[in-house]
Amino acid sequence: MVAGFDLRNELRTAEVGGELLVPTWGDGNPSTDWKIAAENGGAVVLKANPQMLVIIEGLNYALDLRGIAKHPIELPVPNKLVYSAHNYHWSFDTKFPNLDEDSWRNIIDQGWLYIIDQGIAPVWLGEFGTETPSPWWNWMLKLIDERQLDYAYWPLNGEDSFGLLEPDYSTVRLTPDTWTFYEPTPAPTLTAKSRTTPSPTVANAPDCQPVQIHLSPGTPATSSMWVSWVTKSRCSSAVEWIASNAFTNGGDSWHRALGEPPFTYEIHDASKLPHRSSYFYAKAYNSAYLHHVHLKGLDAATYYTYRVGGEPLDATRIEHSGLVFSDPHSFLSLEAPGVAPGPMRIAVVGDVGDTKFSRATMEGASQSAYIDESLIGHGVPPEFIMLVGDLSYADGNGTKWDAWGRMMEPVLSSLPLVAFPGIKNKLAILHLSEPCLS
């Protein structure tokens, strides 16, 4: 028999004593840092019984275990740590209404599957379940089958609509007659020419819902950050941000930065132009609305939580009240030159494109994963991503830019992008012992 203690179920933002507390991981704040609390709790369990397993869930309802890459849990007894993730379809349906399987797998990879891939520690899928057949259900069963994951279905009881049993606690509700089950099939063979289908999710999003969110360092790089995104309709541009531990440090509130009105661009159909266009494959395209907001006054090497939003604009006025914001994202501001105790880490990628291989490249770059059969960086994310060479290979096809932006968002909404022209095809992780930012 295997026995263990799951220290806390589904950490989430909560109001305590009139203060809104947002759980963090590894920022050192004793009031919110789940890593500190989990290590203390685990030590108590192992002192009482060193044979027990200590099960530690991630942030945001156990969806997010990204903090382990830089701040893994340390316990006094070795080989007793198990991380735990939860996964339900409603965690994705609202935020990503047009999610496909590859994009869903991207989120899972970055959220917690990398812990298994990089041999950091075991991961237990502590909860998953559904009340209705859906693509997500088959994706999850496929993932469990392919990776041979350890899991627990929630729940057994008959009181919940998706319990394994009916309310009589004897009749099995989940049967092949009433549910769509995943049947393992051979994985398709990828070729160098295989591409993902561009998915113009902007068209299906609510008017002011931000999509394709990404970051770029501002000037100066250690104290500012550009946040960019697109919306289907003309909406105001606003970003709110706060240090991750600021809620408990006495009266600090969200900072707000406002941007200029968004803009669009247009691509003309090359076949209708009177002369040969340099984009001779160009198709007529009207872009979504592009937003850019500059965050200033950041502290170096600090975790920040941010959210982007806006409200519809008419032709004659700009209003910044009643804003509707996205779910929060986070980033780590850049370290000041000469201050960091170790080398600066930069992920360098080139000629990314928009393919399944591109996604794998970006996942590897964001996690410093296996490259050329060697483990580079031991799972520690870089400070930022440097992209050299070609980007989306859109060649005048605007919808490819949308697909590329969607593919890059899971990485670039947390890691800043620095882009350079040039032709480089090699992915590498640089270790810079000398300062290179001014």
List keywords for this structure.
438 residues; alpha/beta; TIM Barrel; Immunoglobulin-like; 2 domains; 5-stranded antiparallel beta sheet; 7 helices; 25% strand; globular; disordered C terminus
Task: Describe the SSE topology.
Blueprint lengths: L3 E3 L7 E3 L2 E3 L12 H15 L4 E5 L1 H4 L18 E8 L1 H4 L7 H17 L5 E7 L5 H13 L2 E4 L57 E7 L6 E8 L6 E6 L11 E4 L7 E2 L17 E2 L2 E8 L6 E8 L13 E2 L3 E4 L11 E7 L5 H12 L2 E2 L2 E2 L8 E5 L9 H15 L4 E4 L7 E5 L6
Parallel strand pairs: 1-4, 4-5, 5-6, 6-7, 18-21, 21-22
Antiparallel strand pairs: 2-3, 8-9, 9-14, 10-11, 10-15, 12-13, 15-16, 15-17, 18-23, 19-20
| CATH architecture designation of the largest domain | Sandwich
Low-confidence stretches: 182-200, 273-281, 315-321, 368-379, 423-438
Lateral arrangement of strands in the main beta sheet:
1-4-5-6-7
Name of the top-level CATH class of the largest domain: Mainly Beta
**What summary fits the major beta sheet?**
5 strands, parallel
Q: What count of structural domains? A: 2
Strand percentage lies at 15-25%
Question: What's the CATH topology label of the largest domain?
Answer: Immunoglobulin-like
Order of helices and strands: EEEHEHEHHEHEEEEEEEEEEEEHEEEHEE
| Mean pLDDT over all positions | 76
Distance between the termini: 57 Å
Label the structural class.
Answer: alpha/beta
The percentage helix is: 10-25%
Tell how many strands the DSSP assignment holds.
Answer: 23
What is the general shape? globular
Helix count? 7
Would you identify the CATH H-level superfamily of the largest domain? Purple acid phosphatase-like, N-terminal
Radius of gyration: 23 Å
Oligomer: single chain
